[in-house]
UniProtKB/TrEMBL annotation:
InterPro entries: Fungal_SecMetab_SDRs, NAD(P)-bd_dom_sf, SDR_fam. Belongs to the short-chain dehydrogenases/reductases (SDR) family. One of its GO terms (molecular function) is oxidoreductase activity. Gene3D superfamilies: NAD(P)-binding Rossmann-like Domain. This is Dehydrogenase. Pfam families: adh_short (PF00106). GO terms for cellular component: cytoplasm.
Length: 215
């Protein structure tokens, strides 16, 4: 089948790696790649493929989400979207023994958890449309193993307390949607790519972006 796939946070790291990997597959008809700022998309814009559509998207701006939704809806038509990869996210260290940084905390939780929730709420009709057309549909939320409730061993050396909280919230959202929408045949998956050499993972991480994007 022809696949229509949307990737958020596609200007660098895992998001960019996924876009490059997806475009290697002929069954992928369209890849919709979103980013937060036009000033940070040099490598993404170097990809020359008519199937790639690049849009500016700030997850906390409803007007932008609505604008991107209409453009994608008009492109995919009755096919709908087969997969949405929520990869956009931010990380800032937070020291519980240091000063209170309320704005930083709220921003991280909004972008890593609230944003993907609102985004999914807006784009869910396109996943349902794909199912109605007899095709597969899935929402993939890029999470992190350090946000696992069962494997938590406290905060990390990077002082990732708020980041862990925000991703744990994203995990719960994914579990709830998977349970509530089970009969709709839309899949929901929270996935940890592991230790990856990205802006968040750092240069000493175990895997390269190319490795995790391919897998």
């Amino acid at each position: 089948i022809d696949m229509h796939i949307l990737v958020t946070g596609a200007n660098r790291g895992i998001g960019l790696g996924l876009v490059k990997e997806l475009l290697k597959h002929p069954e992928v008809k369209n890849v919709f790649a979103t980013h937060r700022h036009w000033s940070d998309i040099t490598e993404l814009m170097e990809i020359k493929d008519p199937r790639l559509h690049v849009y500016e998207l700030e997850l906390m701006e409803h007007m932008l989400i609505g604008s991107v939704y209409l453009k994608i809806r008009d492109t995919v038509g009755e096919d709908g979207l087969n997969c949405i990869v929520n990869n956009a996210g931010i990380f800032d260290a937070y020291d519980i023994n240091g000063p209170v940084k309320r704005k930083m905390m709220v921003d991280m939780i909004e972008i890593n958890s609230v944003g993907p929730t609102i985004f999914m709420q807006g784009f869910l009709p396109q996943l349902r449309k794909a199912v109605k057309a007899g095709n597969r549909a899935m929402m993939v939320n890029i999470s992190d193993e350090i946000a696992s409730m069962t494997q938590c061993k406290g905060t990390t050396e990077k002082k990732a307390l708020i980041y862990q909280m925000s991703k744990a919230s994203l995990n719960m959202f994914t579990r709830i949607m998977a349970a509530d929408c089970k009969k709709e045949n839309v899949g929901y998956l929270a996935m940890s790519p592991g230790s990856v050499k990205t802006k968040i993972g750092g240069p000493d991480a175990k895997h390269t972006v190319e490795e995790v994007s391919r897998d």
